[in-house]
UniProtKB/TrEMBL annotation:
Lineage of source species: Eukaryota, Fungi, Dikarya, Ascomycota, Pezizomycotina
Species for this entry: Bombardia bombarda
InterPro entries documented for this protein: Gtb1-like, Man6P_isomerase_rcpt-bd_dom_sf, MRH_dom, PRKCSH, PRKCSH_N
Listed GO CC annotations: glucosidase II complex
The protein's name: Glucosidase 2 subunit beta
MRH domain location: 439-553
Keywords: Coiled coil, Disulfide bond, Endoplasmic reticulum, Signal
Length: 565
C-alpha cells in the first residue's frame, strides 16, 4: 500500500453511477467510455484534430498530447509530473496535471469500489491494493509480479467500515436532533417566562398606580384628622395627641437651641467690636482735630454706659432658657412616658402582631396579605386604627408598605425580564443548539493539567499537582472558520471545511503577557469529547472537541457498491 490517503479517492468515486463496459479498452473509466466506443478512428480527447487508428490505443506508445490514447498503459505517465507524490489527497483526479485527459488507470475493482490509479503505478511491479484491489494494474507481471484479486475481503471490510461510519453519523445526527429539541424547549421556556413577566409587570404597574393613590388618600385623611376626646389609651386619640405634642415640643426646643447659638455668635462679634472701639477711645489723639473720630468716640462712650445697665437682665434670661432646653425626663419638663405606656393591650393588637409568630419564610407573604386585610378592616370600622404616639397610623403604614412591596416586586421582575430578553437575543449557534449544552462541561487530561471546557461559560486549566485552577477565558462569541487538516483514521479530528469555533477571552493574566484566551474548534462526533489541547503561543490555547452539536443533520444515503448498481 503506497498511501493511506487512497481511501479518500476510493470513497469519492464510490458514488459514481457509471460502469465501464467490458468491451472498452483496458484502463478506461466509466465517465470516459463514450470516447472509446468502437469507431474506425480515434480522435485524441483533448486534441480532436489528431486522429489515430483504433489499434494505436494502448499500444504502449504515447501518441496523443493529452495521453488519451494510452488509458491502460504507463506510456503517457510522463505527462503527469509526479511532483508532489501522487495521488494528491483531496484532488478529484488524484493528479497534479490538468492537461492530461484522463485521471489515471481505471481499476474496476468488482466487489468493491472502482478507482483510478496514477499511470505511474501501472506495471511498476508493486500491487497497489489500496487503490486497485483487483490487481489489474499489474497485468504485465513485471518481474514476475502477479497481483491476486483481493476485492472480496477488501470490499467487505470497506463496507463494514462504511456501514459503521454511516451508523455513527446517524447516531450523531440523532443526538443532534435531540439537542435541537432540548434547545427549542429551553427557548420556549424563556419566551414563556418573558410573556408572563410582561403580563405580571403590566398588572403590577396598574396595581402600583392604585396603591399610590390609596396611600396618598390615606395619608391625607390621617393628616387632617382632628383629635376628639375619647376614652382611648395609648393607641387612641390621646395617643395621637401625645405624639403630636411631643413632636411639637421637640421642634420648639430645637429652634430655641438654634436661636441661642445664633445669639452667642452675635455676642462674640459685638464683643470684638467693643474691644476695637475701646482701643480706639484709649489710643486716639484728642489733639488731632478730627470731628469724625471725636463724634465716634463720644457715641461709643454713651453706648458703653447703657450696655452695662442691661447686662444683668441677660444673665437671668440665659438660665431660664437653659432650663427649657433640658431634655424631658421623669424629673424635668414633661414626663412623656406617663402618657405613652399603657398596661392592657387591645384585642386588635393580637391581629397587628400575629405575623410575629409566623416562621420567617412565610412572614413577608403573610405580612402583605395581612396588610390588605387590616386596611380593609380599618376602613370598614371592624378594627380600630391604632396609631403609635408620634408615628404614622397603622393605616398609613399598611398603605405605604403595600406600595413599597409592589414597587420592589416590580423592580425585581423588571430586572429578571431584562436578563431573559438578553438571553433570547444571545447567539447560541446554529439551531440555538448550544442552549442545550450550556452549563455542561467536557474535560481531558493533557500532560500535567486537566483541561476543561464548559459550554458558553469558560475554559479552565487545572493543575494535577495541586497548583490550583487557571481561567483560560470566558465565552464571548461563536465564529465559523475553515479547517484544513488531514482526516484522522480514528475520526477524531477537524478534517477539512467550515467549522464552528467558540471564542473564550479575557482569562487569567499571563505572567509578563496578555490575558489567556482559548479558541475551541468543534467537529462532529457521537459524544462530547475533548480530543486535544495545544498552546500555539504563550497563553493562547486551542482546544479541539468532538460533539454532536457540530454534526450536520443529514441522513446520508448508504454508499452504493458496483455490485449493487
Ligand atoms: C502556566 C500555564 C501555562 C502557561 C504559563 C505562562 O504554567 O498556564 O499554560 O504557558 O503559565 O506563564
Amino acid at each position: 500500500m503506497r498511501r493511506t490517503g487512497a481511501l479518500v479517492l476510493l470513497s469519492t468515486l464510490a458514488h459514481s453511477s457509471l460502469v465501464a463496459p467490458e468491451s472498452l479498452p483496458r484502463g478506461v473509466g466509466p465517465e470516459f467510455a463514450k470516447f472509446y466506443e468502437t469507431k474506425p478512428t480515434f480522435p485524441c480527447i483533448g486534441n480532436p484534430s489528431i486522429v489515430l487508428a483504433p489499434s494505436q490505443i494502448n499500444d504502449n506508445s504515447c501518441d496523443c498530447p493529452d495521453g488519451s490514447d494510452e488509458p491502460g498503459t504507463a506510456a503517457c505517465a510522463h505527462l503527469d509530473a509526479l511532483s508532489p507524490e501522487q495521488p494528491l489527497p483531496g484532488s478529484l483526479t488524484g493528479t497534479t496535471n490538468t492537461t492530461s485527459a484522463l485521471p489515471g488507470f481505471w481499476c474496476a475493482n468488482d466487489g468493491h469500489v472502482g478507482s483510478y490509479i496514477p499511470f505511474m503505478y501501472v506495471n511498476d511491479g508493486v500491487c497497489d491494493y489500496d487503490l486497485c484491489c483487483d490487481g489489474s494494474e499489474e497485468f504485465a507481471h513485471v518481474g514476475g509480479v502477479a497481483c491476486e484479486n483481493r476485492c472480496g475481503p477488501i470490499g467487505k471490510e470497506y463496507r463494514r467500515l462504511e456501514d459503521e461510519r454511516r451508523q455513527s453519523k446517524e447516531r450523531s445526527a440523532k443526538r443532534r436532533r435531540t439537542l435541537v429539541k432540548e434547545a427549542r424547549e429551553l427557548r420556549r421556556r424563556v419566551e414563556a417566562k418573558v410573556t408572563n413577566l410582561k403580563e405580571e409587570l403590566s398588572g403590577l404597574e396598574q396595581k402600583q398606580v392604585e396603591l399610590q393613590k390609596k396611600f396618598e388618600e390615606v395619608e391625607r385623611s390621617e393628616r387632617g384628622k382632628v383629635v376628639r376626646a375619647t376614652e382611648g389609651g395609648v393607641g387612641g386619640k390621646l395617643g395621637v395627641l401625645v405624639g403630636l405634642a411631643k413632636t411639637r415640643v421637640a421642634e420648639l426646643r430645637d429652634t430655641l437651641d438654634k436661636v441661642l447659638d445664633q445669639r452667642d455668635d452675635l455676642q462674640d462679634r459685638v464683643d470684638q467690636l467693643e474691644d476695637i472701639l475701646t482701643k480706639l477711645r484709649e489710643e486716639y489723639n484728642p489733639n488731632f482735630n478730627d470731628e469724625g473720630v471725636k463724634a465716634a468716640v463720644k457715641s461709643w462712650e454713651d453706648y458703653a454706659a447703657g450696655a452695662t445697665a442691661a447686662g444683668s437682665k441677660d444673665a437671668v434670661a440665659d438660665a431660664d432658657v437653659m432650663e427649657v432646653l433640658k431634655e424631658d425626663s421623669e424629673t424635668s419638663g414633661i414626663n412623656w412616658a406617663e402618657f405613652e405606656t399603657e398596661d392592657g393591650s387591645s384585642d386588635a393588637d393580637v391581629v397587628y402582631n400575629l405575623e410575629a409568630y409566623l416562621p420567617s419564610f412565610v412572614r413577608d407573604y403573610i405580612h402583605e396579605k395581612l396588610n390588605v386585610v387590616r386596611v380593609w378592616m380599618i376602613e370598614n370600622g371592624i378594627l380600630a386604627d391604632n396609631p403609635k404616639a408620634g408615628g404614622e397610623s397603622r393605616l398609613v403604614t399598611a398603605a405605604r408598605e403595600a406600595l413599597e412591596a409592589a414597587k420592589a416586586d416590580s423592580t425585581s421582575k423588571t430586572s429578571t425580564l431584562q436578563e431573559q430578553e438578553t438571553d433570547l437575543r444571545k447567539d447560541y449557534g446554529p439551531d440555538d443548539i448550544f442552549r442545550a449544552l450550556k452549563g455542561k462541561c467536557v474535560s481531558s487530561d493533557v500532560g500535567e493539567y486537566e483541561y476543561e471546557l464548559c459550554w458558553i461559560d469558560k475554559t479552565t486549566q487545572k493543575s494535577k499537582k495541586g497548583h490550583g485552577n487557571t481561567n483560560m477565558g470566558t465565552f464571548v462569541r461563536i465564529d465559523m472558520e475553515e479547517a484544513d487538516e488531514e482526516e484522522r483514521t480514528d475520526g477524531k479530528g477537524l478534517g477539512k471545511g467550515k467549522r464552528i469555533v467558540l471564542r473564550y477571552d479575557n482569562g487569567q493574566g499571563c505572567w509578563n503577557g496578555p490575558n489567556r484566551r482559548t479558541d475551541v474548534w468543534l467537529a462532529c462526533a457521537e459524544t462530547d469529547e475533548l480530543w486535544r489541547v495545544s498552546e500555539s503561543e504563550k497563553c493562547v490555547y486551542r482546544m479541539e472537541i468532538g460533539t454532536p452539536a457540530a454534526c450536520e443533520d443529514v441522513n446520508e444515503p448508504r454508499p452504493a457498491t458496483k455490485d449493487e448498481l
